[in-house]
Amino acid sequence: MVRFWIAVVIVLALFSALGVSFSLSENTPNIFAAPEQLSPSDWIKEEQIKVYDSRVILDIENANWSQFTNTNSMDPFLDEDANAIEIVPKDPLDIHVGDIISYHTVFGVLIHRVIETGEDDQGIYYLVQGDNNSFRDPFKIRFEDVEGVLVAIIY
Fold it and tell me: Alpha-carbon dihedral of residues 144, 150, 151, 155, nearest 10 degrees?
């Protein structure tokens, strides 16, 4: 048993010498934490969610039901068997990097994650990419093309 504890102390000393920490401090590397990823904004507040034994109620205005086709562009996050709820955003500034939007294109309605926002002489635009795609969509998405923002997924 003594050898076990000596081994633990040696491993912890080695981690300390390498600058690795087990803490959840923002400034220290953590071997249990993954790198930050793009995440959707907080569109639904806790007080809008009611969970009961027999049902769940989401108090969401302007909600739409969404289904998906099998393009694999958002795998493993979304696939053809998932269902979702989207809301219609009211203002172009409501959409942020990390949000997943559905939008109209010449190819039909697509749903991808916003990876960048910007503004040019035509106004605000969004650059989007499917989570499973190795490149972003080749066009700027304008607010008037946005159909909805994904706020809930039901698998």
Answer: 160
10 Å Cβ neighbour count for 134?
6
| Predicted TM-score of the model (pTM) | 0.76
Please list the rounded mean pLDDT of every run of 10 residues in the chain (155 residues). Answer: 64 58 56 79 91 93 86 88 92 96 90 96 97 94 96 89
Domain 46-154 has CATH 3.30.70.1130: no
Length of the chain: 155
**By C-alpha distance, which of 20, 18, 153, 140 is closest to 75?**
153
pLDDT value for 114 = 97
What residues contact 66, with CB distance under 8 A and at least 6 apart?
83, 84, 85, 86, 102, 111, 148, 150
What are the boundaries of each domain within the chain?
Answer: 1-36, 46-154
| Cα R_g (the chain), whole angstroms | 21
